[in-house]
């Protein structure tokens, strides 16, 4: 496949490193990948067994899937305007819910890549007062490229949480959402594996008093690169949006977040807020944070902030004085730093899984306080 990839000379892609994608696109899937038992453990243990989809190299494994209200086939998505989304194709998974409907339990979707590239689109369409909670988990090696298009009608509610836990390779996710009157859309992403990532999102508030919350935690070490770009566009009166991103970079890794709020002239009474914080665990690591506000209405409340710093030396000294080993103290404070990005997840089982994933990245050090502490301040 001949890839037409953007270069770092383009402003929107200046922090991304796509140099590995041509080789991954030319690679052959390792269908005999022997880590299948590990994939099976990626399902979350819920009290109510909901729909499950397992995609291996972008193809549905029907024997390990339970579709419920979901379907697999042609989807109605528009990939225009994004070079990676344009690769997604026209056949993928779909969740369409009628008025007042909801799936029975948490929807779980696991994507496994076995060393090559796979592309998959998805659509989520929620009618009036419908609601769904979805968690997607990305595993394995290779390049998983996804385009997800979402539409929420009046009063609909969608919680979408993603875990990037692959061993190596690349994950690229493009999200486009329209949020109607009084609807609520929350998106949380945790990158706690060994893959590089490129995350793009556009959420457009088209109805009055709608709510959008987007963010997550990006954890990188060695030479990993995570690059997140999210735009919330307010087009209607009384909308509220929150963007909260936490980046942790160690060794020679790089985490970059560009978050923007756009408020059109008609979107009076908008309430928008951005919080971008980065933590450097090594002086050789890099964190980029770029908050942006573009406001054309005159009666709005919007705020943004960005900080990048290192672990609080006073807190490290305090823990050391009480016998906490240096590496454990470092992990405790770093986990506390990202806790507020994870604690916003409404589903308890998902929230606990995200904390466990973060714990695995840090070496299974428990949180210092139940429910997530606030510490590890950066300057």
State the oligomer. single chain
Percent helix, as a range, is: 10-25%
Whole-number average pLDDT?
91
Number of helices: 5
- Tell the overall outline: globular
The total strand number stands at 17
**Distance, first to last CA:** 46 Å
Q: Regions with pLDDT < 50 over 5+ consecutive residues?
A: 365-379
Specify the structural class: mainly beta
Description:
The protein has helices at about 20-25, 35-40, 315-320, 325-340, 350-360, and strands spanning about 50-55, 60, 70-75, 90-95, 105-125, 130-150, 155-165, 170-180, 185-190, 195-205, 210-220, 225-235, 240-250, 255-265, 270-280, 285-295, 300-310. The model is unreliable at about 365-379 (pLDDT under 50). About 50% of the residues are buried. It is mainly beta. The protein has one domain (about 10-310). A hairpin with a 2-residue loop joins strand 1 and strand 2.
């Amino acid at each position: 496949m001949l890839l037409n990839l953007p270069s770092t000379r383009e402003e929107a892609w200046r922090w991304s490193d796509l140099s590995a994608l041509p080789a991954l696109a030319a690679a052959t899937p390792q269908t005999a990948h022997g880590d299948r038992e590990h994939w099976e453990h990626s399902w979350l243990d819920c009290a109510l067994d909901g729909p499950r989809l397992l995609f291996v190299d972008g193809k549905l494994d029907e024997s390990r899937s339970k579709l419920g209200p979901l379907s697999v086939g042609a989807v109605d998505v528009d990939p225009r305007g994004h070079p990676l989304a344009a690769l997604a194709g026209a056949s993928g998974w779909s969740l369409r819910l009628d008025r007042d409907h909801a799936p029975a339990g948490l929807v779980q979707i696991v994507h496994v890549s076995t060393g090559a590239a796979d592309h998959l689109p998805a659509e989520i369409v929620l009618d009036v007062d419908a609601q769904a909670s979805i968690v997607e988990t990305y595993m394995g090696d290779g390049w998983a490229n996804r385009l997800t298009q979402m539409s929420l009608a009046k009063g609909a509610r969608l919680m979408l949480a993603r875990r990037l836990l692959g061993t190596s390779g690349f994950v690229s996710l493009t999200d486009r959402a329209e949020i109607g009157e009084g609807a609520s859309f929350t998106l949380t992403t945790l990158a706690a594996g060994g893959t590089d990532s490129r995350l793009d999102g556009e959420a457009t508030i088209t109805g009055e008093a709608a709510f959008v919350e987007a963010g997550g935690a990006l954890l990188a070490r060695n030479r990993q690169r995570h690059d997140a770009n999210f735009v919330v566009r307010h087009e209607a009166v009384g909308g509220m949006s929150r963007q909260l991103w936490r980046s942790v970079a160690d060794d020679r890794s790089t985490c970059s977040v560009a978050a923007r709020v756009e408020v059109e002239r008609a979107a009076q009474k908008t309430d928008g807020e951005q919080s971008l914080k980065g933590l450097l665990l090594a002086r050789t690591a890099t964190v980029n944070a770029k908050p942006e506000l573009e406001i054309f209405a005159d009666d709005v409340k919007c705020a943004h902030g960005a900080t990048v710093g290192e672990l609080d030396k006073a807190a490290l000294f305090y823990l050391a004085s009480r016998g906490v080993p240096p590496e454990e103290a470092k992990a405790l404070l770093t986990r506390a730093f990202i806790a507020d990005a994870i604690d916003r997840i409404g589903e308890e089982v998902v929230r606990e899984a995200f904390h466990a994933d973060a714990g695995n990245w840090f070496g299974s050090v428990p949180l210092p306080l139940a429910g997530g502490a606030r510490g590890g301040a950066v300057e």
